[in-house]
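Why does this matter for the project? Reviewers at the last site visit asked to see concrete outputs rather than summary tables. In response, this paragraph embeds two records directly. Each consists of the residue sequence and, immediately after it, the corresponding structure tokens. Nothing has been edited or filtered.
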Amino acid sequence: MLPTKELIDQAIEAVLNFNDEKACEIAQEALELGVDTQYLLEHGFHATLALMKNMFDEGKIYLPHMIAAAEAVEAATKIMMPASKENAPVNSKGVVLLGTIEGDIHSIGKDIVATSLQIDGYEIIDLGVDVPVETFVEMAIKFNPDLIATSALMTITMTNQLTLEKSLREAGIRDRLKTMVGGTPVTPEWAMEIGADIYGADASDAVRKINSIMWPEKEETLIISKKNCPEHVCY
């Protein structure tokens, strides 16, 4: 059962008002009503946080606002996550190693993607923020993930995504996994230039494309821009 518009509006208001307590109340109410918590997370809490991130990028709100909003979403997510997992496959759809690339301490976008993928049935290994390229490679060798996802929120840190691609090849493990890049300054052209498999515009886009590239037999079509790009790059 989908949550009512009223419940979704309450979730949106709780995030906009940085109200952790209200967010938890809404999450608990959703559990008691037996509504689709994944839908509420995506269309209520996460959608609002994504909107606020855009406002932050445009200079309309500031970092303390983003942190407070993220804390409200995190509080609600912790309550609803167990229920959301009940709708996920019994067996993991795959292992995703992700983190914000070295030199960058932004975590909002990464956290939304991680939660969305976890809800969708993926096992997540979150390395956090300001993660050195060497750590990505070491953890990739240790955990053998199906995909590595990196976020860069500043143009000066994007080059580390290129360095990671090179380092994975040098370590001899690039061919056995997929890579995804995302972040405000990141573009499909950048993904193509460095040789990444996927460009993720936002959390929903990331989940859709990861499902497409990892489970192509379950997708009716794999939407790929064929203009000036190799077929293996999922844009």
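We now turn to the second protein, recorded in exactly the same manner.
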Amino acid sequence: MDTRTRAAVLAAVTLGLLAGCGHDADAPTGQPAAGTVPRATGEPWYDEVTPASPAGTTGGTSSPCPLPVSFPLADGWTAKAVEAPRGELAELVGEALTKRGGTTVRCEVDGRKAGGGFLRIWAADAPAVTPRTALEGFAGGGDETVGGQQFRDIRAGGFDATEMSWLATSSLTEETSRNWALAVESAGQTLIFAVSEGMVTERTDVLPAYRLAAQGLATAG
């Protein structure tokens, strides 16, 4: 199979075959704690894009997002466990859909029914990885050409966090998209929350759910 065909298969599979089952729609007990504060409008952070309205929470070992943290879900977005492909699909794509730059995807929050995209949460494979190091490895761990990396330190709910924004150019379509991700350390793990623009999603489709998750990030009970 040539590189172009393989890339096309990966892109198609990513849209829907990774999702597991179930979502955690418990009503939040109150407003999320203060988190990121708008500081930079426009490129690259677009802090003028406000958080979405909350409609539930997820996180914790018994949830579809088995993480040591919890975070609010945007209205219409559902958390789903990510399961590794099996059978012929696994032989075709290997770990390409669940591994990236020293991290493993733990779950995704699907907002397609609400007109959004995906928020995916990844965990660093090695312990004691600093947030910035984890972000650098994650951004450079795909098949895209990466450029325009920018970093900043923010407060994400109850955590100090490092946020990164970068541009990624697809080797298949040659289209360039902007990506955002933040990393925090919790319970000996470094976790990455990541969203990106795409062919059918814009920043206003993904940033509200991402900002909401960052704003309400807390240690799981």
